[in-house]
Every structure is written in structure tokens, then in C-alpha cells.
């Protein structure tokens, strides 16, 4: 059903290239039909005028000959009864003048007049049949043009569907690449071709370059983290041998921070390489979250609705909860609230909220966003998002209407729960 709705929406989208091409073809066809119609109409009208003048001339000749022989013409026209425009056109003897009388549009006339011995002799010929033929011709041209448009416009829309389909494929592949599928390709055959083929080739080339750069960056991050582990172990051992004192405590604290950073980098490199695999098990969700919050050692207000059960990887879920809670304490303001409702886990603080850049682009490593959210490496949310993808969960970030950052983790599958709510403070 959804596919049909999307197809209908695309078909009725007047901004689509399909309808723009069809409108362009319709305009071009109308312009051609108008030009041809005007030319045919003018040519036919001129021919009708020529036929009318010839008929009027043929009718005027016997009348003039009769007048010259007998002095009487039938009909002998009184100049006062002739149109003024015709009388003004009459020249000398032997010169025939013509005038098209369309004062009555339904019955036009062609006048022919000649001056004989100072007397103007004129005849008129009805051109009603020619006018009706011209009107019928105009009507047939309009009907034929509409019939051609009725056929050409749908054919143009159908013909435009092929490039539209190729363009939609290019756009869909670009969206997949933007969403993180770096192996998505359009696929082009040969070289050259039209502009769409060139765009497709450019997108594929861009995707190859982007993938190579990201792979190089991921490899560099993993190599650096691995290379730092050996000297870091030496630093850890050496710090433990220092005599007790304020300086030793400061060194040990910095070594712990460095060790946590290196472990985070290693974890990110494994996530980037898709080397992590979930080990799923059916677990009581409320108890797992409660244990995770307790191990974090931070002040949290925990609320569990019912007794939800979910099938997930408890170790990775613990990692996600710990990172979200630590991020809320580091960058937000107490109280930090963790709510478990069904298969949805929400972590909220009451600080300034997530920055707009994070909400728009997602968490980025080594970028914490706004300065008012404190200092850090920007790795906690990145790791939480990566682990959520491993277990097939959806992790979203937002800001509460009354202030504070909210991170929601939605686990896949359903959950059973009772209706009681048990608040816990850890």
C-alpha cells in the first residue's frame, strides 16, 4: 500500500521532470499548430479572395460589354448605392477595382467596379460558401491539433519516464551513500553517454573516493590506538610504582583518562570495521538497566514501568546505558533521569540540551558541540550509537520542551510488562 501511495504521489507531483517535459512538448506542439494554422488560414483566405475577384471579373465583363453596345447595363449600379470604399478605388477606364465587403460577417461579398464613359459599373459576388469552407477548415485544424496533443502529451510523459527513473535511481543511491552505505553504486556501462550517465559515473566515483578516505581514516584510528596500547601499559605500570602523594594521584588520573580514550578509539575502530557481533539473550530489561546504572556509580533517578523483558545483548546494552548516563552527567545538569517503558529506554538531564549541530547531523567523534555542555572527546555518544546499530536498536537524540537533553533507545521486538511502576534512585 505504501508503495502505491508513493507511486501515486510521484505521478501527481507537478514539479516532476516528467510533467515539465510534457508541458514543454505541449507548448511546442501548440506553437507549431498555431503557426501552421495561421499560415493555412491565411493562404486559404487569400485563395478565396483570388477566386472571388476572378468570379467578380468574369461577371463584370459581360455587363461592361453590354453597356458599351447598347448604353444600358444590367445591373447598372448607382454610385450612391455602392460602398464608398469601392467608389474611391475606381480609376480610369479599363481598370477594374475590387473591394471585399465584410460588413455582414455571415454573408460577405466581393465587389468589382470599372469606369466606362464616366459611368461606374459594379457587380457583387457572394462569398458565403468560401467563408463557410474557411471556417470549417479552421475548425478541423483546431480539432486535429487537440487530437495530436491528446496523443503527444501522454507519449511525452511516458518517454520522460525512462530518464526520470534513471534520475530517481541516482538520487536513491546518493541517499543510501549519505546514510552510510558506502558500497552502494549506481553502475554505469561503458563511457560517455548522456548527461545522466555522466552524473551516475560522477556519483560512483565520489562514493569510491569517500569510501577509500573513510577506510583510511578508520585504519589510521585503529593503528594509532593499537600503537598507543604498549606505551600506555608502561605508563600505567610506572604510575602504580610512584610514591603516594598529590603528584602521583594526578599522574594516575591522567593515565586513566588516556587509557579510557585509547579503549574508546579501539572500540570505535571495531565498530567502523563492522567487526562487532551481538550475542542476544532474553533478559529482564529493568534489572539490566538498574545494574548498569549502579555500576556507573553516578546519581540517577531510575523509573521502570512494569517488568519488561527484551531479547538483546546485555553487555552492549550496558555499554550504551553507561555512556548515555555519563554523557548526561558530564554535559548536563542533575537530576539525571532514566526511564524504562516497554522496550524504550530514555535518559534525560536538565541541562542546556543537545546542540543543533548534533540534532541535525548526529554525534561526531571529537566534537562535543556547544561549549555550555562541557568538555569531552565526543566519543561516548558515537560509541553508544554504534553499539545500538550492532544490537539492531534505534538511538535518537532530542531536547525536552521544558529544557534538558533526551536520548531514547528503542530496542527491537516486543516486551511484556506489568502495569506497576517502581521508582528507584541509584
Notes on the structure:
By secondary structure, the chain is of the alpha+beta class. The protein has three domains: 16-178, no CATH class; 195-272, Signal transduction histidine kinase, dimerisation/phosphotransfer (DHp) domain (Helix Hairpins); 281-425, Heat Shock Protein 90 (2-Layer Sandwich). 57% of the residues lie in helices and 14% in strands. The chain has ten helices and eleven strands. The strands form three sheets. The protein has a six-stranded mixed β-sheet with strand order 9-10-8-7-5-11, with helices on one face. The longest helix is centred in the N-terminal third of the chain and has 54 residues, at 17-70.
The helix tally amounts to 10
User: Which word captures the global form?
Assistant: rod-shaped
Q: Which regions are unreliable across 5 or more consecutive residues at pLDDT < 50? A: none
Number of domains: 3
Mean pLDDT: 81
Helical content stands at: 55-70%
How are the strands ordered across the major sheet? Answer: 9-10-8-7-5-11
Strand elements, count: 11
Order of helices and strands: HHHEEEHHHEHEEHEEHHEEE
Oligomer: single chain
> Structural class, from secondary structure content?
alpha+beta
Instruction: Please describe the biggest sheet, giving its number of strands, its sense, and whether it closes into a barrel.
Output: 6 strands, mixed
In whole angstroms, how far apart are the ends? 47 Å
InterPro entries: HAMP_dom, HATPase_C_sf, HATPase_dom, His_kinase_dom, HisK_dim/P_dom, HisK_dim/P_sf, Sig_transdc_His_kin-like_C, TCS_sensor_his_kinase
Domain Histidine kinase: 223-415
Protein name: histidine kinase
GO molecular function, one term: phosphorelay sensor kinase activity
